[in-house]
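To close the section, here is one more complete example, presented without commentary so you can practise reading it yourself. The ligand is iron/sulfur cluster.
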Amino acid sequence: MTIQLNIYRFNPENDSKPYMQYYEVAISKKGMKLLDALNDIKWNMDGTLTFRRSCGEGVCGSDGMNINGVNGLACITPVEGLKQPIQLRPLPSMNVIRDLVVDTTHFFDQYRQIKPWLQAYTPTPEHERLQSPEERVELDGAYECIMCGCCTTSCPSWWWNGDRFMGPAVLLQADRWLKDSRDEAAGERLDQLEDAFKLYRCHQIMNCMEACPKELNPTQAINHIKRMLLNRQS
Amino acid sequence: MVKYGKDLGAAHSGLSDWYLQRVSAVILALLLPWVFVLLWVLALDGLSQQALFALLDSLAVRIAHTLLILALTIHAYIGLKVMIEDYVHTGMRVLLMGMVMVGMGLFAIWWLSLIWAWGG
Ligand code: SF4
Ligand code: SF4
Ligand code: FES
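Output:
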């Protein structure tokens, strides 16, 4: 049993334009994941194939790619059930560095803009800033995000206005800090987000939610930020 | 390389657009069906011209009519503005938005003057 793949190839040093390359890989085990197939190609057939990966279990967020037209993580996507030949492309709308590796500089710059760390001004308690179990539950659905970028690169609003629109991943994280009971900078955070481009470019197209391999719901988080802004105003 | 601008902070502009868009949508949802009801009745010959004018002349209907036109123009203006913001990326953006604003404003003034000049 083999699986067939068509993989996007582009090496800016040699290629004038990208092309799709065909590979066939043996199914090595039950429950084989797409990353296993990519590793097999890289290790045993064609060492020039370039892609990012690290954890191999959906935790690091480095192997986001476009799989048969849908963004996802290669390491947790079973090859079984995928239409063949499997079409593998880099995440849409990001600049390709080589093959499946994209330039995430701007994506993480936007992440930095929301200051994704705890900001507290009250004196530091002797041991730690405590959080009750109920307050901790508030972060469910946000802390699981691994910043793989699958959602943001599937968002049409980010395609058209990604220079200014923060995109679903970053806004989900912004909401995560707004919801954190220990964070004391909600006001400044909201100030930084109240902008027709940064936040309100989201038109609830919901591509982000469908793309998220961790089954999170950035749309809901974005709506929560909008509601917080409304409540602050009224 | 795509060059991205610096982070210039927030313009504090999105919330009012978003809010007005929703409020005007509610008003439209409440009032617009009555226009179609009225057209339907007229099509069935259920109302004489005299009765129609009397109806449009009444204060309550004038106020509702005014609300409807305001909601309609605001809703249409913001809708077009959002589309321009989405898809137009050059200096044309500001020019186009200005043209839409002037167009919508003139339409509203013209229609409102019809409502309130009526009958007298
Ligand atoms: S819901 Fe918003 S953030 Fe998500 S894909 Fe649609 S426009 Fe983008
Ligand atoms: S919300 Fe989901 S798709 Fe988006 S970056 Fe986080 S884990 Fe990835
Ligand atoms: S390799 Fe870490 S998420 Fe896939």
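Once you have examined the tokens, check your reading against these statements. The interface with chain A takes residues 1-2, 4-5, 7, 9-15, 17-19, 82, 85-87, 89 of chain B (CB under 8 Å). The mean pLDDT of chain B is 89.
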